[in-house]
């Protein structure tokens, strides 16, 4: 189909299509309005009008029976197959009907495909039409492929883009994804219901009592609930990928926090596998002891059983997530039966054996007796809390497999919060029931009954006919305080509790065995720790981290073989708590940063509550085990420093970035309220480098005195046709700023497009900077080719110096012997890189073609070649300057290359000669002083040269030394030059005269008429009158060069007062001649002129 602007009628070929809707542009005539109103239902929204005559002009009309379909389309926009439902060009009279509402346009309607990331597993990313596509003139003779009009009209990109995605879709088609119940709820419940429920909760109730026991459970639940709320807010603020807690934290707080917590969280899960398996093995060994079936000894039996168990669990995990999920469901059923078995047992009438062991069914007297605490020696509220709290963890079990969930944004909040609620009810229910049925101490002796007439002294057991008073003086084996198997005794069928213990331990071990590799794989994929990249690879339709599974297996086996986990257990709990703390802090930080991108769909959160949750988690870490908390913080801090130092090349839009922006903005605004003070002056420079890589030496010397102390903006002016300039400018902005960052240059890049160079610089001088952070110094390179340059270039060059002075901005002109511009060198380098890239691409194409020959044929070769991104620059190991050295330098100007790096090198012992001839406020002295503070220049001493009278040399030297000491500027020597104003020698003056000869008018040698005519035709030339009027100044420039040759020929750097040319009085060519003769045949020279406002002070 070709684009057609005629009014031909295209009828809808599928009139019954369920997603079909159209927008009619309703004529303003009454008849047309009536016709449409008869056939369409009124829209159910408030119409917006822009004036009386346009009111009700636009209205949506539906085909008969299609309102419901339209509503479905709006609700399921992502799933609507728009390309199949719409026709590109339906027309009625003179109105076009397109997906983009009503007329023929490439402007696109909002679609989810435009907002996806490249390589998204949820669907292909589509590029919308760029602003240039819409704004620029439409190219003529565009050939549109048949069937592509819909795509172009809707911004789907050019035909052919759809071929990039099918392979990924095929790979992911068979992936197993879980809903919120099986994927999150089941896992969280199994992880939270651990062994603690069956063998420690009764002891906690015995120690703390029912009241404090419920408070302990409640306090633990507060921590997990606050974390769950924060996690829900983060999860619903965008699409969640695989990686669980690591993904949430890293995308919120950045790679530094995410990378540090991700590694220890994955390790904690791996060691947790060993903890849970050892718990399971200990229970089995206890059963073997009872039946006298020990294999070797208790320790080795634990190792044997634990090793076998881990191998079986590894097999289930490697078999795939689907098998692991089925195993989890079976374990949950067993666990629920065991819990139900306990509650049923509490209402089954107790027998004498159970009564002797302290179980009397529900009794008000037992409830009252057990309600208050009865801590034994060495125990207290916080110690008991520390023992219970690990039982409440496990809320991240669902989030850890976020990559295997159908809809993580919905599943994680719903499943996690419901799991917390259900498990909390179960914990509190078990605590209250066991506290109301079982006494704290019992002997287990059925003969310890009450003799009639005995005084019970308020004892609940005594009131029920049993005397357990001897437990006060000697240890007993039964009761809440002494027997960890109380739930087995109370339950209707004891072995079911043992099965519940097995289920709790194995399910937690299985969840940790799955979580650790998934989190670790996500961490490795992000390449934060480059040495761990090996473990990023996934296998199969579910991208299973098999390498991570085996690493987790090795870690778990190592700790199982140690069989001493009592020391490591508190550290593991603290690792989990550290993750909880950072999740809470992430939610707070994202809210506090006030980023417009923070828009969680889960609205039940508050940033201060999240901060409270983070603080609470940190406090609980110290309550559980203070030394383990310290170890956790030390490890996390070390990893944070490591990741910060490595600076991984990622950009996740973290809240840290958002807060940095807010902080910078606040500081900039606050700075505007502070008046400038001379003590806080620092050079803030605009450097006319063009592209920063094209004049590196100019940037290096400027960066030397602005780094860490002042603003530095690398500026480029694009001159030429506006359309081409803007396009070139926009395309290079990010690349050039990235070059500065890569080369560790603390500077900004700015560019403008202008009709002429001077206009562009004038714009930069006026508009650059922000608030108090505005440039006060212009740095430019010396125009070495001024004699061959066109007139306009000289006028622009001298003009920007005049403009800078007009804006009260200081000027620094830098001259080195070989010039600054190395763009030709870079061009040759780029050409060589492109040739090498093309060669590698061709080799890869031929190699792939050999592999696929016979299956795809010659067509596959061309398609493969077309997809190779040949234009992508090869990764460079170092900066452009360093790579130049490794190229075929014989093809380049070697001296130019060396000169371009001269300020990168460390300057040896030498001098910086400061010729402070005119007082400009002190900038001429401040810049060299700052240079001596830099590492590369610290071995250079300052020598100060000032003008003076021959008969007052010593006095003026003392006065200058006094001034410098008050300024606290160290110097090696002071020289008073008394013969500046004498005439230069004839040879030097002859060189100057020959230099300006081509640019002189020589009007005095011509008649008046001819002279006037020449002035009108060449007003830029140097007149005899001008040259005579400033002859003394010209003498001074030539004489200064002689003195510089005499005194500073061996200096590392010369800093010299820049002569000022009075506007309208000194011609541009004469001024350039001054600069040329002044700096001729010298080491690197900085011509400096401040804005004549103080930048130095000796007041405190």
TrEMBL record:
Pfam families reported in the protein's UniProt record: AA_permease, AA_permease_N, SLC12
GO MF entries: sodium:potassium:chloride symporter activity
Domain Amino acid permease N-terminal: 90-157
Keywords assigned by UniProt, alphabetized: Cell membrane, Chloride, Coiled coil, Glycoprotein, Ion transport, Membrane, Phosphoprotein, Potassium, Potassium transport, Sodium, Sodium transport, Symport, Transmembrane, Transmembrane helix, Transport
Compartments it resides in: Cell membrane
GO cellular component, one term: apical plasma membrane
Main location: membrane
GO biological process, one term: chloride ion homeostasis
Regions that span the bilayer: 184-203, 210-240, 260-281, 302-321, 327-348, 380-399, 419-439, 546-565, 571-592, 604-628
Coiled-coil stretches noted in the UniProt entry, renumbered to this chain: 825-852
Topology within the bilayer: Multi-pass membrane protein
Reactions that this protein is recorded to catalyse: K(+)(out) + 2 chloride(out) + Na(+)(out) = K(+)(in) + 2 chloride(in) + Na(+)(in)
The SLC12A transporter C-terminal domain, residue ranges: 695-1100
Limits of the Amino acid permease/ SLC12A domain: 183-686
Gene3D superfamilies reported for this sequence: Amino acid/polyamine transporter I
Stretches the record annotates as Disordered: 31-50, 149-170
Family label: Belongs to the SLC12A transporter family.
Protein name, as recorded: Solute carrier family 12 member 1 isoform X2
């Amino acid at each position: 189909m070709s684009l057609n602007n005629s009014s031909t009628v295209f009828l809808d070929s599928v009139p019954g299509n369920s997603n079909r809707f159209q927008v009619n542009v309703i004529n303003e005539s009454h008849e047309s309005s009536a016709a449409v109103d008869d056939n369409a239902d009124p829209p159910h929204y408030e119409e917006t009008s822009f004036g009386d005559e346009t009111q009700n002009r636009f209205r949506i009309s539906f085909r008969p029976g299609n309102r419901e379909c339209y509503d479905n389309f709006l609700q399921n926009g992502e799933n609507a197959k728009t390309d199949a439902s719409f026709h590109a060009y339906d027309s009625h009279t003179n109105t076009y009907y397109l997906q983009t509402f009503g007329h023929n346009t490439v402007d696109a309607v909002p679609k989810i495909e435009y907002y996806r990331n490249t390589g998204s597993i949820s669907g292909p990313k589509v590029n919308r039409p760029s602003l240039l596509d819409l704004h620029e003139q439409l190219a003529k003779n565009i050939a549109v492929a048949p069937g592509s009009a819909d795509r172009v009209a809707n911004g789907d990109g050019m035909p052919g883009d759809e071929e990039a995605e099918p392979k990924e879709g095929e790979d992911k088609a068979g992936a197993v994804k879980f809903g919120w119940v099986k994927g999150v709820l089941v896992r969280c419940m199994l992880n939270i219901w651990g062994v603690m429920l069956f063998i420690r909760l009764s002891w906690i109730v015995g120690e703390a009592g029912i009241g404090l026991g419920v408070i302990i459970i409640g306090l633990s639940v507060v921590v997990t609930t606050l974390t769950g709320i924060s996690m829900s807010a983060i999860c619903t603020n965008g699409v969640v990928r695989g990686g669980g807690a690591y993904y949430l934290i890293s995308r919120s707080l950045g790679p530094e926090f995410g990378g540090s917590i991700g590694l220890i969280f994955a390790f904690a899960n791996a060691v947790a596998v060993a903890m849970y398996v050892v718990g399971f093995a200990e229970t089995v060994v206890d059963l073997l002891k009872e039946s006298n079936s020990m294999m070797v000894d208790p320790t080795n039996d634990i190792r044997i059983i634990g090793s076998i168990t881990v191998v079986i669990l590894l097999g289930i995990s490697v078999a795939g997530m689907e098998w692991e999920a089925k195993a989890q469901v079976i374990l949950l059923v067993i666990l629920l039966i065991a819990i139900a078995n306990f509650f049923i047992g509490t209402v089954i009438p107790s027998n004498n054996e159970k009564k002797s062991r302290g179980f009397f069914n529900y009794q008000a007297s037992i409830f009252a007796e057990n309600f208050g605490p009865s801590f034994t020696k060495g125990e207290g509220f916080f110690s008991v809390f520390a023992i219970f709290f690990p039982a409440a963890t496990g809320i991240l079990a669902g989030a850890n497999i976020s990559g295997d969930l159908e809809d993580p944004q919905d599943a994680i909040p719903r499943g996690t919060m419901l799991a917390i609620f259900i498990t909390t009810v179960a914990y509190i229910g078990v605590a209250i029931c066991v506290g109301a049925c079982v006494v704290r101490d019992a002997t287990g002796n059925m003969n310890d009954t009450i003799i009639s007439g005995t005084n019970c002294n308020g004892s609940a057991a005594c009131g029920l006919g049993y005397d357990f008073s001897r437990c006060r003086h000697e240890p007993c084996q039964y009761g809440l305080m002494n027997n960890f198997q109380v739930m087995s005794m109370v339950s209707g069928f004891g072995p079911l509790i043992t099965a519940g213990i097995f289920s709790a331990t194995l399910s937690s071990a299985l969840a940790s065995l799955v979580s650790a590799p998934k989190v670790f794989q996500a961490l490795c994929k992000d390449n934060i720790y480059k040495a761990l990249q090996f473990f990023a690879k996934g296998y199969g339709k579910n991208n299973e981290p098999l390498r991570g599974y085996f690493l987790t297996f090795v870690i778990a086996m190592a700790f199982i073989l140690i069989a001493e986990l009592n020391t490591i257990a508190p550290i593991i709990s603290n690792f989990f708590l550290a993750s909880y703390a950072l999740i809470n802090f992430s939610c707070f930080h994202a809210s506090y940063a006030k980023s417009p991108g923070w828009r969680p769909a889960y609205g039940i959160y508050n940033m201060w509550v999240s901060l409270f949750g983070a603080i609470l988690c940190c406090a609980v870490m110290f309550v559980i085990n203070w030394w383990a908390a310290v170890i956790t913080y030390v490890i996390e801090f070390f990893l944070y420093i490591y990741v910060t130092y490595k600076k991984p090349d990622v950009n996740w839009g973290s809240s840290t970035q958002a807060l940095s922006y807010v902080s910078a903005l606040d500081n900039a605004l606050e700075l505007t309220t502070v008046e400038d003070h001379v003590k806080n002056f620092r050079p803030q420079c605009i450097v006319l480098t063009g592209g920063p890589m094209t004049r590196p030496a100019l940037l290096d010397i400027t960066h030397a005195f602005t780094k860490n102390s002042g603003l530095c903006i690398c500026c480029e002016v694009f001159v030429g046709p506006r359309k081409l300039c803007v396009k070139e400018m926009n395309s290079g902005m990010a690349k050039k700023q990235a070059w500065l960052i890569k080369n560790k240059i603390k500077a900004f890049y700015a560019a403008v497009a202008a009709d002429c160079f001077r206009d562009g610089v004038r714009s930069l001088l006026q508009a650059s900077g922000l608030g108090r952070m505005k440039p006060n110094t212009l740095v430019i390179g010396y125009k070495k080719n001024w004699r061959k340059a066109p007139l306009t270039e000289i006028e622009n060059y001298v003009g920007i110096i005049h403009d800078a002075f007009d804006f009260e901005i200081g000027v620094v002109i830098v001259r080195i012997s070989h010039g600054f511009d190395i763009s030709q060198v870079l061009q040759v380098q780029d050409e060589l890189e492109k040739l090498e890239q093309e060669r590698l691409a061709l080799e890869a194409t031929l190699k792939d073609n050999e592999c696929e020959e016979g299956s795809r044929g010659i067509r596959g070769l061309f398609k493969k070649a077309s997809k190779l991104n040949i234009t992508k620059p090869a990764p460079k190991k170092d900066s452009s300057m360093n790579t130049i050295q490794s190229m075929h330098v014989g093809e380049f100007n070697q001296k130019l290359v060396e000169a371009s790096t001269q300020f990168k090198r460390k300057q040896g012992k030498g001098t910086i000669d400061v010729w402070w001839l005119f007082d400009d406020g002190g900038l001429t002295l401040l810049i060299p002083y700052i240079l001596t503070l830099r590492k590369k220049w610290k071995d250079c001493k300052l020598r100060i040269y000032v003008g003076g009278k021959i008969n007052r040399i010593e006095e003026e030297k003392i006065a200058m030394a006094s001034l410098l000491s008050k300024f606290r500027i160290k110097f090696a020597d002071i020289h008073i030059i008394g013969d500046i104003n004498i005439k230069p020698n004839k040879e030097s003056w002859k060189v100057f005269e020959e230099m300006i000869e081509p640019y002189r008018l020589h009007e005095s040698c011509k008649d008046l008429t001819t002279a006037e005519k020449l002035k009108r035709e060449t007003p830029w030339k140097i007149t005899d009158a001008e040259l005579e009027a400033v002859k003394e100044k010209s003498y001074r420039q030539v004489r200064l060069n002689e003195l510089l040759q005499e005194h500073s020929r061996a200096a590392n750097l010369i800093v010299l007062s820049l002569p000022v040319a009075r506007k309208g009085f000194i011609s541009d060519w004469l001024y350039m001649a001054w600069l040329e003769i002044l700096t001729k045949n010298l080491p690197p020279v900085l011509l400096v002129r401040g804005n004549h406002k103080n930048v130095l002070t000796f007041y405190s």
